[in-house]
Write a structure and sequence with these properties.
Chain A is of the alpha/beta class. Chain A has two domains: 2-83, Rossmann fold (3-Layer(aba) Sandwich), CATH 3.40.50; 87-193, NAD(P)-binding Rossmann-like Domain (Rossmann fold), CATH 3.40.50. Chain A has helices at 2-8, 25-37, 62-67, 85-100, 113-124, 137-147, 159-163, 178-181; strands at 42-44, 59-60, 72-76, 79-83, 105-109, 129-133, 152-155, 168-171, 190-193. In chain A, helix 6 (137-147) links the parallel strand 6 (129-133) and strand 7. In chain A, helix 4 packs across helix 5 (113-124). The longest helix of chain A is centred in the middle third of the chain and has 16 residues, at 85-100. Helix content of chain B is 67%, strand content 0%. Chain B has helices at 3-19, 25-45, 47-50. Chain B has one domain (3-62). Chain B is elongated. Chain B has three helices and no strands. The interface between A and B is medium-sized, with 36 and 31 residues.
Chain lengths: 208, 63
């Protein structure tokens, strides 16, 4: 995507996948030192390192500091600056749907790196209430606590509990859920599924 | 919406942070769809059909 975007703007860009499975803090620190010294413009960070890199950077954007997760690191003046474009990207995508939807609770399934970013993006879009479920309940509880000054939050006991009566659902787990859970959504429920393995949503039917 | 839109807009915002330039979201969408099409084709092909691909040729790398 980056290379094609650069090509369209008449300059050359090289985007390289660096895969490091099971890296600990020291390996991440060494990798980031390489990014700083080797002339990269920056690096994207993905699951499961979005939270782990936070303490290894020189500076965080206001959003990234609030969220506690980083997916984009920019090198500026030899400093590593962390940003979260999961949040800005999600906000840009979902804003028209949020403003068009009726007021009510939104369910967030997954409170990991992406889930956190989305939760803060939803708070910025003036969503009234967020119901959070994560199979690791402490993660959901922690996120709910961090958001409580910004919007009404609650922790759901299970997915069924999270979905009850909501006007919107965000799946922030890597597992696509729409085929499995579609029958549980009420009419005119807005659905955002962040997984990449989800089939496209039919334009007709109960989902909107 | 699906993860497609999120991935594209998140990447577009990252591109702008990296370069200071505003990218074409539609160009990035075309690239994304191409990568995903290859990725699904590869996953449907099965391991035997992937043996000829080097690590740098796996479609996932292009994201």
């Amino acid at each position: 995507m980056h290379e094609r975007a650069a090509q369209a703007l008449d300059f050359r860009c090289h985007y390289q996948l660096v895969e490091i499975a099971g890296a600990g803090r020291e390996e991440l620190r060494i990798l980031l030192e390489g990014v700083r010294r080797l002339g990269f413009a920056g690096i994207n960070v993905t699951f499961p390192y979005k939270e782990a890199v936070v303490g290894l950077l020189d500076e965080l954007s206001a959003d990234a500091a609030l969220i506690g997760a980083v997916n984009t690191i920019v090198v500026r003046d030899n400093r590593l600056i962390g940003h979260n474009t999961d949040a800005t990207g999600f906000a840009r995508t979902i804003a028209p749907l949020v403003s068009a939807s009726a007021q009510g609770a939104v369910a967030l399934i997954g409170a990991g790196g992406v889930g956190k970013a989305i939760a803060f993006a939803l708070a910025g879009l003036d969503v009234n209430e967020l119901r959070i479920f994560d199979h690791e309940q402490p993660k959901a509880t922690d996120l709910a606590a961090r958001l409580e000054s910004r919007l009404k939050t609650s922790v759901a006991l299970d997915v069924e509990d999270a979905l009850r009566g909501v006007v919107g659902v965000v799946n922030a787990t890597p597992v696509g859920m729409l085929p499995v859970l579609a029958h549980r959504f009420q009419t005119r429920c807005c659905i955002a599924d962040c997984g990449l393995r989800t089939p496209s949503i039919p334009r007709s039917g109960r989902r909107s | 919406m699906t993860g497609r839109e999120l991935a594209i807009y998140a990447a577009a915002d990252a591109f702008e942070l990296f370069t200071g330039l505003v990218p074409s979201v539609s160009e990035m969408g075309i690239a994304f769809d191409g990568v995903m099409a290859k990725r699904y084709a590869a996953s449907n092909a099965g391991p035997a059909d992937l043996r000829h691909l080097g690590a740098d040729q796996l479609p996932l790398n292009e994201l």
